[in-house]
Amino acid sequence: MTGDDHAEVVRSEERLHVGTLSVPVERVRVRKVVVTEERTVTVTVRREELRVEREPIAPGDVDQEQLAGPDQDPRVVEMVLHEERVVVEREVVPVERVRVVVDRVTTQQPVEATLSHEEVVVEGDTVDRPAS
């Protein structure tokens, strides 16, 4: 056969290639914020108060030397009164660890596309050949 004895065409069709592309969609910033709040705590405090008690003494019941020590003036008595003061301290203690983790979630997403392809149609008159 020679090159004139046949004809040929190349048939083409579209093929679908589907992939993925990673694109940034959101920026997240993690930061700590200090929030202050008022707290009221009730604390019990004690103090000493002076109370004067008077008791009549009959003559001859108490000697003057019994009222004061050997080096003290019997007319002066000293006492020290005490009271409690509230002391406030602040302490920073770690209470929680916060971790931000990126989870990759896989889902299925259908993709629809219209594809074209070529078909070969041979047209022409048929010639009756004599049977040999």
User: Strand-and-helix sequence, N→C?
Assistant: H
Shape: rod-shaped
Secondary structure class reads little secondary structure
> Please, what is the average pLDDT?
87
Low-confidence stretches: none
Radius of gyration from the alpha-carbon trace, in angstroms: 54 Å
Classify the helix fraction into a percent range: under 10%
Query: Largest sheet at a glance?
Result: none
Count of β-strands: 0
| SS strand fraction | under 5%
Number of contiguous helices: 1
Fold and architecture overview:
With 132 residues, the chain is mostly loops. It contains one helix and no strands. The two termini are 20 Å apart. The mean pLDDT is 87.
Brief synopsis:
This protein is low in regular secondary structure. It has one helix and no strands.
What is the secondary structure topology, with strand pairs?
Elements: H1 64-67
